[in-house]
Amino acid sequence: MARSARRRSSPLGETRFSVSLVPAESFREDVIAGLSLPQKALPPKYFYDARGSRLFEAICRLKEYYPTRSEFALMRGRIGEIARFARQGSALIEYGSGDSRKSHLLIEALRPSAYAPVDISADALQQASARLRRRFPWLEIRAVHGDFTQPLKVPMAPSRGRRVVYFPGSTIGNLTPEEAHAFLRMTRGQVGPGGAMLVGVDLKKDANVLHAAYNDAKGVTAAFNLNLLARINRELGADFRLRRFRHYAFYNPARGRIEMHLVSLARQTVNVGNYRFAFVEGESIHTENSYKYSIEGFRALARSAGFTGKKVWLDPRGLFSLHGLVAS
Ligand code: AVJ
After folding, report:
1. Distance from the alpha carbon of residue 137 to the mean position of ligand 1, in angstroms
2. Please, what is the end-to-end C-alpha distance for the chain in angstroms?
3. What pTM did the predictor assign?
4. Strand order in the sheet with 196-202
5. pLDDT tens digits, residue range 311-323?
């Protein structure tokens, strides 16, 4: 197990990092397994090393990338109603807490009894926790470094009150509908009876708007995608030549998702440790799906996983949604 963020001190308001739940070896195994598939694929959770997290923050500032701005506008405009739905004094668990500006709004309005951010990026988690500690000295923070798609133990006593999981950013779009179903079921178990969930979900819309958001003019999304290969080179001693791969993203309407790929520009072989992978010209590595949902489509998915859709909020332009779900 990698234990990159291990600090245990306790008084209220201090950050407590639990033992990392991301085994270093699983990165290598996942990469080798993914590159061995007929359609080569890599899990998008590995985008977020220190450089990847910075690039993602740059994506969020791009004019073409509407989701972050839309969700932020939604939160700012409706925060009173959202906090009322979550109910003051609840314990707040946040999955994929990367960028924390939305969390700040919610914490300020909700004043939770405790706050447990869960993130796969130790760097992002540490920075966000430090900012929160400065801004909300009264807040009990229990940071968890780990992969929230796997069953996780969140160190929060039941006496902390009703559990509310906040899952912003449409990160749920990275999962296939089947995976999202399993994930929602797991979260349903995590919050328990009477628990609730606030999920940010990107909406279906004009394919040209979607296309622009994942093919920005400055090439930041391309750099973000290619950084995955740079990370594999750096951490696993691989020899990907980045100039021989090109970012390719498109909307697949039949499946309701953006697909990101890295396309090999030549016939070539790549070594990852003792493994060798052959690419024909034009062959791709599928690096990410970003599913888009209609309001009803997402509600039906949540319903099938044991949640009732009680509330839904949209940003002023109607591009992005936040669902308020309660355990059925
Ligand atoms: C963090 C998964 C929500 O799907 O829009 C942004 C990641 N990929 N640009 C998304 C991403 C390319 C993002 N999520």
Report:
1. 31
2. 36
3. 0.90
4. 144-145, 114-119, 91-95, 163-167, 196-202, 320-327, 307-314
5. 999 999 999 999 9
